[in-house]
Design a protein that fits this description.
This protein is α/β, with parallel strands linked by helices. The strands form five sheets. The protein has an eight-stranded mixed beta sheet, with helices on both faces. It has a five-stranded mixed beta sheet with strand order 3-2-1-4-5, with helices on both faces. Strands 8-7-6-11-12 form a five-stranded mixed beta sheet, with helices on both faces. The termini are far apart.
């Protein structure tokens, strides 16, 4: 059975699941060059089909994530479309029509919540059916299914892990909002029986509170939350906890669930004026770092209490997590340290970009009553052959770009030598990674001991805020040197942080400089042989079993996807070396500078 999975919302994407296995997945932003692209992912769909060798007539059904979603076929939902509402709602200069609309929707929500939600979802599905009817072949019209938002997140966690049928475990989802919910809990018995345990309505979303504070702090919502997380360790702990207490006082608890207190309204969509006023009251005259530390501590407190309650109540020691809240790697670190947790899996890049994968997985389960295959790796994108590389190189030569290029007999050895000499090298090889994390195939690499390389990379290309840490790719044989991970929790996808080990100074530039935590990609020979060999050659030359790894992109743009993208970024940046498949490209013009 071939299933086309689609997510047409924030950071839209598409995937192909064949015989229960994800064989291709692509984010639309990579192909459109628009960060967090929001619309029907037509180019991703076409490229997934092409890579898989399939046509629309080969697709048995289409699974589209989320009921309550607004999208477009042509053009995209801009950032202003979903960010502009906060100022409008906080501004007291409402028009009469706007006030009436908000009042009507609030009354509808209060007294007819379920009916209101159902009507809104039905309207969205109806609108999107018309869009897809104009795009998909007629034969797929009756084979198109919509999968509820948090069920799609749940599917990535429950089926993506290798626990299904082997262990008794719980799947938790948590994000800003989706189809009326912000969190869910499921119990999966060892025999495969799935039990829904509980959920939390979206108007109580702790993740949306984090997003609103991100916006209040002057950053981009749904994108820059990680900057607050990165700043948090710099803040004074006592004062951060004082701020955190004020955030936590906005909520009440009952039976393991958190709820927004009455009178504050709710944290979702365009009805946020009361909560925004509270945020401004809390943040007024507070230091930037203390606010970051406060919301991070409050966020950790809520999720730890929530997960702790259910795992203790149901005596579960293994968990699987999905949803954008779990992109917060510091929270994941603390969850892993809960005494009752022995093992955990976080679906990599677990924001909404993975909803296409979850929708496809869940639809496979719905139709076959068989669980789809667990995740093997995240190298799910496109690859390019020698002819593609040579054509791109020739195109840029014709544009007048100055460079030298040689085909290497052992490109991994050549890269390792350059890194050992404190050079920065961009690497493009094999299939592109799916998701937010560069996992070696579309990466910028550097010597991890050389702290000056942080400044060098930022000047060359990244332009990151000065407090933001970089990450590391570490050999599995050296993980114990650089991480404190007594439970042996797997971390191949940069989705977890760990305290630094005894030799963390060896990878100082690839750790957090303030608290020395590490957000690692543990690399095995099986997961990525060529990348593993590169790091092993580097270890042979330096004695260090890891390298600094950051994403290959210009600031504010998605990761590179194609050879043309790689060369375009290379020539627009201060990078000197680019390893593109087996070719080493150098800018002689920069020598001596």
């Amino acid at each position: 059975m071939n299933i086309l999975g689609i997510h047409d919302g924030h950071n839209s994407s598409a995937c192909i699941l064949s015989s229960g296995k994800i064989i291709c997945a692509i984010q639309e932003e990579r192909l459109r060059k628009i960060k967090n692209y929001w619309a029907v992912p037509t180019e991703s769909i076409e490229n997934c089909l092409k890579f898989s060798g399939l046509k629309f007539e080969d697709i048995d059904c289409v699974a589209i994530a989320t009921f309550e979603q607004f999208t477009k076929l042509n053009g995209y939902v801009s950032r202003d479309d979903y960010m502009g509402s906060m100022k409008r709602i906080y501004d007291s200069n409402f028009s009469f029509k706007e006030r009436l609309t908000v009042l009507r929707d609030r009354l509808s929500y209060k007294f007819k919540k379920k009916e209101w939600q159902r009507n809104r979802q039905n309207q969205c599905v109806s609108m999107r059916k018309k869009i897809y009817a104009s795009y998909l072949p007629v034969a797929l019209k009756k084979k198109t299914h919509f999968i509820e938002h948090h069920i799609a997140h749940y599917a990535t966690a429950a089926f993506g892990a290798k626990y299904y049928g082997n262990k008794r475990y719980m799947a938790f989802t948590c994000d800003g909002q989706g189809d009326g919910r912000c969190a869910t809990v499921h119990l999966i018995e060892k025999n495969g029986e799935i039990k829904f345990i509980d959920d939390i309505e979206d108007n109580n979303s702790i993740a949306n509170l984090y997003a609103l504070i991100t916006c209040v702090m002057g950053f981009v919502v749904l994108e820059h939350e990680y900057k607050l997380m990165g700043m948090a360790p710099y803040a004074n702990e006592t004062r951060s906890k004082e701020v955190a207490k004020m955030f936590l006082d906005l909520f009440r608890w009952k039976d393991g669930k958190w709820f927004l207190k009455p009178g504050i309204n709710r944290i979702r969509d365009t009805y946020e004026k009361p909560i925004i006023k509270k945020i401004y009251e809390i943040c007024k005259y507070k230091r930037f770092d203390e606010i970051c530390g406060g919301i991070q501590y409050a966020f950790e407190t809520v999720l730890l209490k929530w997960i702790g309650y259910y795992t203790e109540k149901y005596e579960v020691d293994t968990i699987a997590l999905a949803g954008g809240a779990f992109m917060n790697v510091k929270t994941n670190m603390l969850i892993s340290q809960l005494p009752q947790i022995n093992d955990m899996f976080v679906f990599p890049s677990c924001g909404d970009e993975t909803l296409s994968i979850g929708a496809a997985m869940q639809q496979h389960y719905n139709q076959t009553e068989e669980n789809p295959k667990p995740l093997d790796n995240m190298y799910l994108g496109l690859n390019y052959d020698q002819n593609d590389i040579e054509k791109s190189l020739e195109n840029f030569k014709q544009k007048g770009c100055e460079f030298s290029v040689k085909k290497s007999e052992n490109i991994e050895k050549d890269i390792a030598l350059l890194l050992s000499q404190k050079n920065v090298v961009a690497r493009f090889k094999g299939r592109s990674e799916f998701g937010a994390r560069a996992l070696g195939n579309r990466s910028i690499l550097s010597h991890p001991t050389e702290s000056r390389n942080i400044i060098t990379i930022n000047k060359m290309i990244k332009k990151r805020d000065f407090w933001m840490p970089f990450a590391s790719s570490v050999l599995d044989t050296r993980a114990d040197d650089y991480l404190v991970n007594p439970k042996g929790i797997g971390t191949p996808y940069m989705i977890m942080a760990f305290p630094g080990g005894d030799k963390v100074e060896d990878i100082y530039a690839g750790s957090h400089p303030q608290d020395h935590t590490v957000r690692p990609q543990i690399v095995t020979q099986e997961s990525n042989p060529s990348y593993y060999n590169l790091i092993k050659h580097f270890e042979d030359l330096t004695g260090v079993g890891g390298i600094l790894n950051t994403s290959f992109n210009l600031h504010g743009y998605p990761l590179v996807e194609s050879p043309d993208d790689a060369l375009d970024v290379f020539f627009k940046s201060g990078l000197k070396f680019l390893a593109i498949e087996d070719y080493l490209v150098n800018k002689p013009i920069l020598e001596g500078k």
